[in-house]
Specification:
Shape: elongated
Structural class: alpha+beta
Strand content: 5-15%
Order of helices and strands: HHEHHEHEEHHHHHHHHH
CATH topology of the largest domain: Serine Threonine Protein Phosphatase 5, Tetratricopeptide repeat
Radius of gyration: 24 Å
Number of helices: 14
Length: 277
């Protein structure tokens, strides 16, 4: 069997061949963006973090990183977890200054508003980066909905953002990335506590800040924080938080008796679900 190729058939074959090669090429590389504003919009829509790779054409370690990390088969399987942006420090000095880039290569993970949540400088091996990328949180729509509201400087928006950052940090397996999320959560909660004139928001911010200690595994520190504080437990929301945090402390300390004692006092269904996770 054979096929006779005329001119039109050859054009179709050439087109199909080029299309196939292009498809293979596209699937074999990260499709870097160079517009951070566009990346922020994509991040908000997709619920994915922004990854910024700061580099220069003359940078040897950057080229090594490109070959051994960004072009690696393992990384290609993870590219759908973030919005990739490549930033030349020679042509985008303002962006580099915004992220305090003094050494390259530098990789930054950012929220949908561009706020940095994690960074790593230099390159010697791909394993450290791969470990972080594998633990990237997915579907951050709830967090990003609160992040957008931060532009109002409303303490309640900072409280809710801090809460979502704490919840997200709790789910992350990589220690460094988890600590980065929890540190940012503390920052937002402290801002809410200092700026609000609403006593309930102030107390909620204080309690969720203590909850970050529980998430970090500092159970005794969190327990002391509750004991030292004066919280309005006649408010059911505040009371629920107090009992939830204490239950988390006792759970972490393997004190089953006190854990059950506090757990039964928690009425909020979402908090009970978190205790049972």
């Amino acid at each position: 069997m054979y096929i006779v190729l005329n001119y039109n058939n050859m054009k179709k074959l050439l087109f199909l061949t080029l299309f196939s090669l292009l498809s293979i090429s596209l699937s074999a590389q990260i499709l870097w963006k160079d517009n951070l504003s566009q990346a922020k919009n994509l991040s908000l829509i997709s619920g994915k973090l922004i990854l910024l790779d700061f580099y220069a054409d003359w940078c040897g370690p950057c080229k090594l990183m490109d070959r051994e990390l960004w072009s690696s088969p393992e990384m290609k399987l993870l590219t759908d977890l973030f919005i990739p942006v490549r930033v030349s420090v020679d042509f985008n000095r303002e962006t580099a200054l915004d992220y305090d880039v003094n050494v390259i290569p530098k990789v930054v993970l950012a929220l949908c508003n561009g706020e940095m949540v994690w960074e790593m400088t230099g390159f010697s091996t791909s394993s450290d980066y791969i470990k972080v990328m594998k633990s990237l949180p997915v579907n951050l729509h709830r967090l990003f909905a609160q992040v957008v509201a931060l532009s109002t400087k409303d303490p309640d928006a900072y409280l809710k953002t801090g809460i979502e950052l704490q919840k997200t940090g709790k789910t992350i397996s990589d220690k460094g990335l988890k600590e980065s999320f929890l540190s940012l959560a503390q920052q937002k909660l402290r801002f809410a506590e200092k700026q609000t004139k609403n006593p309930k928001i102030k107390q909620q911010a204080q309690l969720y800040s203590i909850l970050v200690d529980v998430t970090n595994g500092s159970f005794k520190k969190a327990q002391k924080g509750i004991e030292k504080g004066t919280f309005y437990q006649d408010d059911p929301d505040i009371a629920d938080l107090v009992h939830f945090i204490l239950a988390g402390c006792y759970k972490g300390l393997k004190d089953d008796q006190n854990y059950e004692k506090e757990k039964v006092l928690v009425k909020n269904a979402e908090l009970l679900t978190q205790l049972n996770e």
